[in-house]
Design goal:
With 129 residues, the chain is α+β, with helices and mostly antiparallel strands. Helices cover 39% and strands 27% of the residues. The chain has three helices and seven strands. It has helices spanning 2-23, 29-42, 88-101; strands at 47-52, 55-57, 60-62, 67-72, 76-81, 105-110, 120-124. Helix 1 crosses helix 2.
Length: 129
C-alpha cells in the first residue's frame, strides 16, 4: 500500500507540474482544479472533484459543507490553493480532511508560485488506535 501511495503522489505531483508549466501562476483555484483533474484522468487515475466530506457527530453523519478539492484513487486528498503563501490554517485544513476522510496521505498544492515544487507539501496522517 505504501509503495502504491508513493506512486500515486508522484503521479499527482507530475500532473500538477504539467498544469503549472502550461498555465503559470495567477489563475483562480477552480481553473487549476479543473485542469489538474483533467490531467489526472488523462493519466488513467480515478479522480473525484469537490468530494463531500461529512462530519460524524454522536454516530450521525452530518453534511457541514466540507469538500475535498480532489480525491485521487480514493486514497490521496489533494487540497489546491492559489494564494500568496501557504499559511498554517491551510495545513490544518488538509490534516482535518485526512482525519475526517480516513485517508493517510494528502498533498497541499499552491499554484501561485513561480516554481511549483516550492508550493507543494506532502502530509501523512498517522491514526491513533
Amino acid at each position: 500500500m505504501k509503495h502504491n501511495l508513493n506512486k500515486i503522489t508522484e503521479a499527482i505531483i507530475g500532473a500538477a507540474i504539467a498544469v503549472h508549466k502550461e498555465l503559470g501562476p495567477g489563475l483562480l483555484e477552480s481553473a487549476y482544479e479543473a485542469c489538474l483533474a483533467y490531467e489526472l484522468a488523462e493519466r488513467k487515475l480515478k479522480v473525484e472533484r469537490q468530494k463531500g466530506l461529512p462530519v460524524t457527530y454522536h454516530g450521525v453523519q452530518l453534511d457541514c459543507g466540507y469538500r475535498i478539492d480532489l480525491l485521487v484513487e480514493g486514497l490521496v486528498v489533494v487540497e489546491l490553493k492559489a494564494v500568496e503563501r501557504l499559511e498554517p490554517i491551510h495545513q490544518a485544513q488538509l490534516l482535518s480532511y485526512l482525519r475526517l476522510s480516513g485517508c493517510k496521505v494528502g498533498l497541499l498544492i499552491n499554484f501561485n508560485v513561480k516554481v511549483l515544487k516550492n508550493g507543494i507539501r506532502r502530509f501523512v496522517h498517522e491514526f491513533q488506535e
